[in-house]
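Hi there, hope your week has been kind to you so far. Do you reckon you could talk me through the fold, stretch by stretch? I've dropped the whole record in just underneath, so have a look:
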Amino acid sequence: MGSEANPVLEVEKETRQIFAAVTVCFLCSGATGLIYQVLWTRILGLAFGHTVFAITTVLAAFMAGLGLGSYLFGGVADRSARPLRLYGFFEIGIGVYALITPFLFSRAEDIYITLHRAFGLSFFTFSLMQFLLIFLILLIPTTLMGATLPVLSKFFVRSLEVLGGQVGRLYALNTFGAVLGTYAAGFHLIPTLGVQTTLLLAAIANIGIGVLAVVFDRHLRQLGNETSDRKAEVVGAPAPEPILPGPAAEKPPAVAVWLTVVGLGISGAASMMYEVAWTRALALVIGSSTCAFTTMLVTFLTGLALGSYLYSRVAGRLRITPVFFGGLQLGIGLSALLVAPFSTGFPSCSCGSSRSPSPPDS
């Protein structure tokens, strides 16, 4: 009798294992997302004839999609009773769509070349047409990528008290995966396997992650843990209850909130400028645009992941105010200024890899 397993403990153990497996899936999802980014930049660099244009287009679509996905599906995640299954569907959608992106790029190229020949588009109009078509193609999978964080946050976070720390850890985990994906794609997978095979492997990985998430969701429902208090105890969070602000909580003035929101947008724009500028500077030294882009992304994402992880460790002990946010932005600006002199000494380059693209002859 004493050797019989306790059913409750067995259920809790299995639930813990599922939650651990989901975190690994999210790590791998971050890796595949950045594999796509490196791949799409490589493919579009050939189509645009200018790697900086390709990087700018991919980064713009990536960041727009991540923001749009979080905005559109944040509310959906809050209302969803089965966020893990929803996450699985998003991952499957990302993988399936990624498989057809080379075909869509080819069709887009046919469209803007046909329009140029028919209407004699100027260089500016032709470049804008390229950007818009590729941007719209990439906006769909990147929006699905942006939806995954709020959906998984709903799955993991059971209380407002742990919201900042849990989301910070999830973001850090996903970003560390992105670092691994960027490094693997730029320095190993693409040089060894080629673009098409690497794309196929990444898409299969996304579809596999999605299928696993759906299976895990079904199994959790069978265990009866999807809405029970036991699930909250397993992940170390209290049962969901209304959380009221303590007497020490002070609401900042509305103008300070709006200035912080505007500042956050400006900070995001500056970050993308850093990525493009640092890639350009590194390309002049390394000589390979793909290697330069990969090196920049690995460093950039490592910093994002470390920052998210460190913040998640102290989130409950810091008093977050607009002044705190301003201090962080000041630190970013000053550190960027310290880096700037290292790029001003780089030699100028007029090789073919940095030439401006020209519309095809009519």
Summary: The longest helix spans residues 7-48. The CA atoms of residues 77 and 151 lie 5 Å apart.
